[in-house]
Design a protein that fits this description.
The chain has six helices and twelve strands. By secondary structure, it is of the alpha/beta class. The radius of gyration is 18 Å and the shape is globular.
C-alpha cells in the first residue's frame, strides 16, 4: 500500500474536528477548505522554479519564481467541490475541470455522468481531488478518464482513505502518487470508511 500521509499537526487537528458528528455543514466546509489548502502546500513541493531578476527598494537581485508549469484541478463531483477553493487559494491560476461519477448502490462501481476538462489536457499536471478514497473505484475511474483524454502527470489528493481504496489505485495506476491526511482501518459492509467521517457530500451540503 503506497500513499503519502501528510501528518502536519494543523491538518491532523482539523481532521479530528471534521470527523466529529457534532460538526455542522458550515464548520465542515470551512475545515475542509483549510485542510485542502494545507495539503496543497505539501503536494506542490516539487513544482519547478526558474530564476528571474527583480529590483527591490534597495538593489537588483536574482530570485526564484514558478517556472510556468500548468496545473489543473479536477474535483470529483460532488464532494470534491468542497476542496477546490482551498487549493485555488494557493494556485489561483490553475484551471478547474470537473468529473461527475456516482457509485452504484448495488455494485459499488462508479458510473460517469459528466466530464468537462481544460482544452490543453496534455500540457497540464493534474491534481484529482475527493475527500474520500473508499473503494477506490471513483478515483481510479476519474484517473483513467483523464489518461484517455491525454493527461500524462496526475496526482490524487484525498482527505481520508481506506486501505482497500489505496491498494486499488496503486494496482490500476501505479504511476499516480496518492496524498492523504489519514489511512483509516477498513470499509464496512456498505462501502463506508471506518472510522471515517460519514458521507462527505452530505456533510458539505447539508443533505441526507
Amino acid at each position: 500500500m503506497n500513499a503519502k500521509i501528510i501528518d502536519h499537526p494543523l491538518i491532523q487537528h482539523k481532521l479530528t474536528l471534521i470527523r466529529d458528528v457534532k460538526t455542522g455543514p458550515k464548520e465542515f466546509r470551512e475545515l475542509l477548505e483549510e485542510i485542502a489548502m494545507l495539503m496543497a502546500y505539501e503536494i506542490t513541493r516539487d513544482l519547478p522554479l526558474e530564476e528571474t531578476e527583480i529590483t527591490t527598494p534597495v538593489t537588483t537581485c536574482k530570485c526564484k519564481i514558478l517556472a510556468g508549469k500548468k496545473v489543473g484541478i479536477i474535483p470529483i463531483l460532488r464532494a470534491g467541490l468542497g476542496m477546490v477553493s482551498g487549493v485555488l487559494k494557493l494556485m489561483p491560476a490553475a484551471k478547474v475541470g470537473h468529473v461527475g461519477l456516482y457509485r452504484d448502490p448495488e455494485t459499488l462501481k462508479p458510473v460517469e455522468y459528466y466530464c468537462k476538462l481544460p482544452t490543453d489536457v496534455q500540457d497540464r499536471d493534474f491534481i484529482v481531488i475527493d475527500p474520500m478514497l473508499a473503494t477506490g473505484g471513483s478515483s481510479s475511474a476519474a484517473i483513467e478518464l483523464l489518461k484517455n483524454k491525454g493527461a500524462k502527470h496526475i496526482k490524487l489528493m484525498c482527505l481520508v482513505a481506506a486501505p482497500e481504496g489505496v491498494m486499488l489505485v496503486n494496482k490500476e495506476h501505479p504511476d499516480v502518487e496518492i496524498y492523504v491526511a489519514a489511512v483509516d482501518e477498513c470499509l464496512n459492509d456498505h462501502g463506508y470508511i471506518v472510522p471515517g467521517l460519514g458521507d462527505a457530500g452530505d456533510r458539505i451540503f447539508g443533505t441526507k
